[in-house]
Amino acid sequence: MENRILTFKDCINKANECGGNKHLILGNGFSVALFPKIFNYKVLADKISSEKIKTLFKELGTNDFEYVLREVTRALKVIKGYPNTKNLCKEMSSDIKELKKTLIDILTDSHPQNPGAITEEQYISCYEFLKHSEAGKKYTFNYDLLLYWVYMHFLDNKEMKLKSDDGFRHPIGDESVVTWEIGQEHDQNLYYLHGALHIFSDDAEIEKYTWINTGSTLTQQIKASLKDEMYPVFITEGSRKQKQNRINNNAYLARSFASLKNIKGNVFIFGHSLRDEDDHVFNYLNHKSKVNNVFISIYGDKNSEENKRILKKIKVWEKDQKDKKYPKKYYIYQAESAHVWDREIDEEVVRKQIFGNIPELEVF
Questions:
Q1: For a surface tag, which of 163, 165, 173, 281 has the fewest beta carbons within 10 Å of its beta carbon?
Q2: Residue 362 pLDDT greater than 50, yes or no
Q3: What is the pTM of this model?
Q4: Looking at residue 63, what is its pLDDT?
């Protein structure tokens, strides 16, 4: 791992020199960069209405839902070993379910209501960012609709259409829904690693909500489903092992996870803090995939405690690459230099790009 922090442009150039596809893995920083007052654990935690759950957060000194879930789950395992704790265990199990439901409810209620919440300039900026991984696979840990909205925004634009296939198809003879099935996802290149707000499952089939089939916005459909106590495919477990178990029991998530093994070339990780809870994904990427280069973003001061933790973890990954069949090199870049949502673009060039059938925009 290089000691210096690179720019996003440096990393793109490095990947181009090495050759191979450029794959993308998105963390929560992708959404926070656009809506910091929405996709932020502190903001979400402030909206908790249950006094009991509020107390849990206060006692643990955190705003992190996954941390609270993990700690309560750990405590439950310990308490089960003691006599006369049946009622307490039942209560704690109920609290865990309520905490998961609370996270989904709050995130859905806080989510921007429609794609118009993103400006045209922001759409185009994100387009330029995503264009780098056009030939590769795209993975996201995020539950929200932002990435989906960006791909849909350019779907009918012949000049700027982004290659996007999430594996969902219309069943034969039924145009009212889109479903995901094993065997029909061979061209899929977009994966929601932990599920998403618009993906639902009734154990029989996995369905994606769309606006075009109902005339209702996705957020309206999601809220209606929540009222009927139908919940999205949504990994809210606190520990790595629990998440892996949930993934293994869902065909869509299991296939998404397994596809990491087949990627080659380069992978860009953006907006992820490399938390231990997601080691099931990164361990698989580091030890099973055939990628050669891994480019990882850090946000803000290199010497912040959070970034020190991330850099320390990457050094561990690097040591683990010795004697591997597909050894990987790791590079760090400044997240801000990617300008995912705030790239400065010449408006005249954009106008010609959209209406004049000229070559693609210069990225840098």
A1: 173
A2: no
A3: 0.85
A4: 83
| pLDDT top residue among 77 and 34 | 34
The confidence score (pLDDT) of residue 16 equals 97
pLDDT-above-90 percentage for the chain: 48
Contact yes or no for 255/182 (Cβ under 8 A): yes
**What's the confidence (pLDDT) of residue 215?**
66
d(CA 154, CA 149): 9
The β-bridge relationship of strands 206-208 and 195-201 is antiparallel
